[in-house]
Amino acid sequence: MVYSSKILSLSQYPVGISGHHPSIIIRYNTPAENIFFGSRHTIAFTLKYPSLKLKTMKVAILLGSIRKGRQSHKIAHYLQNKLQEKGLTVDLIDLLENPLPMLEERVGMHPALPEEVQLLSNRLHAADALIFVTPEYHGSFSGVLKNTLDYFNSEFTKKPVGVVTVSAGKMGGINAANQLQQVILSIGAFALPTKLLVPEVYGAFNDSFELTSEYTIKSANKFIADYCWLAEAIYQKKHQLSSSL
């Protein structure tokens, strides 16, 4: 029995057929008495492609503390170093060094958008994933971070966002973290379920901004692992091989 084949096209199948992997449709010309009840049938083959590497991703860490004597910057720099060790490009956006005026109107609606707002918008747009770092003030996250988030919208759309909070007490800013995750959902982003809480922050780091608490180190390692998993999954989804390749 002789079969002839011809590649007809490259296609993307929906979930449940080929799991979003690129597939080649091959049509076989077969004898009429073939058991598939016809002279032609089509078979789809899934081609596996290698995982897109994390090192091609860019992460923006938004540091939401400008207070004198602040402590949040320590965990921001710690995460920057750990993510860079994994090969990611990290843009640490310190709102102390990149202050924005109090919100009058959002990006896209402002009649005369301040230059510093546009520059920050560009940096956020360039990021594939984000991390928000904030202290807890009066049971919530910082006002400077809220003011910054309110300026933007499309900069966050369908991007994974991790939440990191610090506090002087033993709870690590959990109230701020919970509220910030709700805001992340409201801006159209994907909130990482795993939160990184840094309790008793004044004694949590050495002079090199390295964590000293075994408990917090373990929490940070889990946060980083979960964050990279989610960020890579979303990144791959956005960068699947197109049907024209």
From TrEMBL:
One of its GO terms (cellular component) is cytosol. It comes from the Bacteria. Residues 57-199 form the NADPH-dependent FMN reductase-like domain. GO terms for molecular function: FMN binding; oxidoreductase activity. PANTHER family: CHROMATE REDUCTASE, NAD(P)H-DEPENDENT FMN REDUCTASE LOT6. This is NAD(P)H-dependent FMN reductase. It comes from Chitinophaga niastensis.
